[in-house]
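Box 3.1. Reading complex inputs
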Amino acid sequence: GAVVSQHPSRVICKSGTSVKIECRSLDFQATTMFWYRQFPKQSLMLMATSNEGSKATYEQGVEKDKFLINHASLTLSTLTVTSAHPEDSSFYICSARRQNTGELFFGEGSRLTVL
Amino acid sequence: QQQVKQSPQSLIVQKGGISIINCAYENTAFDYFPWYQQFPGKGPALLIAIRPDVSEKKEGRFTISFNKSAKQFSLHIMDSQPGDSATYFCAANTRFNKFYFGSGTKLNVKP
C-alpha cells in the first residue's frame, strides 16, 4: 500500500510557541492533501484541504491564521500551529490523495500537547 | 446534514464470528466508498474500497456489500479475530472532492 509519513509523531510545547508538522507521500504524487483533527473517541474532523501550489481551503470555523498550511510540492504538505495554546492540544492527522486513483492514505498522526 | 451515517457505535463479537458495520449515505453523486481501520494512537489505514458499479467486493476476510438503490454499504469481517479490534470508519466521496466520514464503530473481538 501507499505510504504517507507524518512527523513528528509526538510533540510537547509551551503555550505561545509554534509547532510545525510535516506530511510526506513517500511513493506517490499527491496533488491534494487533507489535514484532520481528531478528538478522543470521535471521528475525523476536516480542517483544511491543501492543493499543491495554491492556497489551502479551510473548513468553516477553522482559523487560517492559526493553522498555517503549505503544500510546496507534490509530496510534501506542512501544518504549522501558530502561538499554540492548551486548547490546541489534539491528535492531528494528514492524508494524501493519490493522483491517478483518487485513493486516500493517512499518515500516522501527530499528538500535540501544549503546556 | 450528516452525509454519511454509520452504525453501530460499538460492537462486541466473539472470536470466529462475523462483524457487520453499516453505513448509509445521502449524496447519490458519491462514487467511491472506502473503509478505514484505526488502532489507538495511529492514523487510519485503508482497508478496502468499492465503487458503485459492483455490489460486492471481497479481500481476504473483509467484504464490502453495496446497495445503490438503498444508498447503503456495509463491511463484513469474517472469522473475526482479537487483532481486528479497532475503530472502523466508512467514508464516501465524489472523485477528486473531499471525503465524508462516518462517526466510527469501535469493534471489540473477544477471545
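In summary: Chain A touches chain B through 24 residues (CB under 8 Å).
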